[in-house]
Amino acid sequence: MTDYQHVTDDMTVYRDGTIKLHGPEGYEGMRKAGRLAAEILDEMATMVAPGVTTAQLDARVREMTLDGGAVPATLGYRGYTHSCCISINHVVCHGIPSDKRLKEGDIVNIDVTPLLDGWHGDTSRMFLVGDVALKARKLVEVTYECLMIGIAEARPGARLGDIGAAIQKHAERHRYGVVREFCGHGVGRLFHDAPEVVHAARAGTGPELRPGMFMTIEPMINLGRAPVKLLNDGWTAVTRDKSLSAQFEHSIGITEEGCEIFTKSPTGLDQPPYG
Ligand code: MF3
Ligand code: CO
Ligand code: CO
Fold it and tell me: Residue 87: which domain range?
């Protein structure tokens, strides 16, 4: 049995394992945070190019976040000292910005989370650096499809496992590996809240989705096998077999009709090519 907790504007929220049910002020807050997050990624689309360092991208993320009246939720999060995560090629997630330069043919995930007026807009997209090989572009395309297929399952009455089941089915149809070590999560006033949104699951299992639930869906899909390993920096996750990995992430809220995507690009730049 699942516990739910209705959230009101004036209450302190705890991470107690219950799934929060948010009201109108939550949707308003997430729309604003999500919009800023999407605008930051739109800007990234204009900057990603061979020769650009990931530290330069991180600096722009920080600047746009602060200019938007927000703070990067990753800054100081469990000792992380950057404003976003930038994960290149076989890096699955949590790549640390550095002086490393992007190069022609790379596929890159940029994951941003502005914390605006108490709400977390958590989203990531893939970017293609110059000419990218067909099989890498296909991985990126199918990973975006996985995200949107998962989102299509998110509606009242569905079970949480329906999301992961749909994603897993689509990825495995293409013989890709679905990462198990990291998952989506409840989001809102807390960066990472209940429930865990796994991207490989059995349909019909898990808690029932209800209007007011906020969560991220963020499948990580590998061209090769699913297992990942953590590098010695304690953050960078890479594919064990060194195959390419792709990820897209949206923050969504369950509505009476289905769901609302808080982090959609206002200019339609949700997936590459960005023009
Ligand atoms: N944005 C990531 C997520 O989707 C979390 C990054 S935490 C960090 O949940 F510390 F690695 F930045
Ligand atoms: Co997330
Ligand atoms: Co994220």
Answer: 18-261
Nearest-angstrom CA–CA distance, 110 and 54:
9
For a mutational test of ligand 1's pocket, the pick from 62, 94, 187, i.e. the residue with the most ligand atoms closer than 8 A to its C-beta, is 94
Residue 2: per-residue pLDDT: 64
The number of domains in the chain is: 1
Which ligand places an atom closest to the C-alpha of 124? 3
For ligand 1, atom 4, the nearest C-alpha belongs to 122
Where the chain has pLDDT below 50, the residues are 1
pLDDT of residue 41: 99
Asked whether residue 179 is assigned to any structural domain, the reply reads yes
Q: Is 213 part of a structural domain of the chain?
A: yes
Closest protein CA for atom 1 of ligand 1: 111
> Which run of H or E residues covers position 37?
helix 24-47
In a domain, 273, yes or no: no
Q: Is 99 known as a binding-site position?
A: no
**Residue 167, domain CATH:** 3.90.230.10
Q: Is 122 in the pocket of ligand 1 (CB under 6 A)?
A: yes
**Burial environment of residue 195 by CB neighbours within 10 A (0 to 12, 13 to 18, 19 or more):** buried
User: CB–CB of 244/136 below 8 Å?
Assistant: yes
Ligand 2 center–CA 103 separation, angstroms: 26
Regarding beta strands 4-6 and 245-247, do their DSSP bridges make them parallel or antiparallel, or are they unpaired?
Answer: unpaired
Taking the CA atoms of 227, 232, 234 and 235 in sequence, report the sign of the dihedral they define.
negative
208 is in an annotated binding site: no
